[in-house]
Amino acid sequence: MLDFTTQYPQALLIVLDKNYRSQQCILDAAGESIAQNTERLIHRIPGLKKDIISQLPPLSSEERGMRGEVHLPTLYAAPTHQHEEIYLQETIQSYIAK
User: CB neighbours (10 Å) of residue 52?
Assistant: First the structure.
């Protein structure tokens, strides 16, 4: 993928920047994580932007919960799959206890 524009310089570039499935807060969090990757097309094609915009309406207060909170995703880099399993179990248990 990274060499596509080199191999096919006459190819039409189409940027998909609309999302119809996720809220903007999720897309922003994903974008921050993806931005850490240095091997991206945006670093090879001048002027290319990959800012994904949600096409969903903002969440209502009922959809956000009684306290009006929006829970953003948490990035956890587990050293092993066992650590990941324990982290997930503890996180789920804490949400159930609330």
Answer: 19
